[in-house]
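Retro notes, item 3 of 5
We never archived the inputs for the adenosine-5'-diphosphate complex last cycle. Fixing that now. Sequence and ligand:
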Amino acid sequence: MKQRLLFLGPPGAGKGTQAQLLAAERQLLHLSTGDLLRGEVAAGTELGQEAEAVMARGELVSDALVLAIVRSRLEQQAAGGGGGWLLDGFPRNVTQADALRELLEQLGQPIDLVVLMELTDAVLIQRLLSRGRADDNEAVIRHRLEVYREQTAPLIAYYREAGLLQAVEADGTVEQIAERITGLLP
Ligand code: ADP
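Structure as it came back at the time:
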């Protein structure tokens, strides 16, 4: 059973929506670094204050900070019997991917599958503009797409070379895309 999953794809591809559905269906821990960071911002924690301005600019929060968040949750999950998980929005660059690999080796929990959600820029920008989140104005969206291309897209080759990557077309209805994703799983 594939139960340690990673969702990869540009902002606006629908990772969060699909991750939430699949995690509920398969009882996986859904770890979204974006959601966790927004939670810290809303709660006004020190970490949140540090992350807020960076997120508003569409840049990446420091690797050390997101790593600390992910590490504590995955360690907790492993200690609680090692249930499955689904990472969404992490890793976002090669440094984070290397750190994740090391952490998972320590935990004895390798990734089973990386799902790449593919979508054209035109559709992405349309979706993000209609979402209306604080970091969803056109200039910031373009910057986030640039950051994705420069820092996150190299992970496609990274996981393809590891033999873990499967791509799905992320255009269509939520149900259609969910079906494509579950089609990759046993
Ligand atoms: P989206 O999927 O629309 O890009 P997310 O909710 O995943 O949005 O992330 C929103 C913002 O949170 C990012 O633009 C970035 O500033 C920050 N962030 C989320 N995950 C990470 C991460 N793994 N590393 C660094 N920054 C992150």
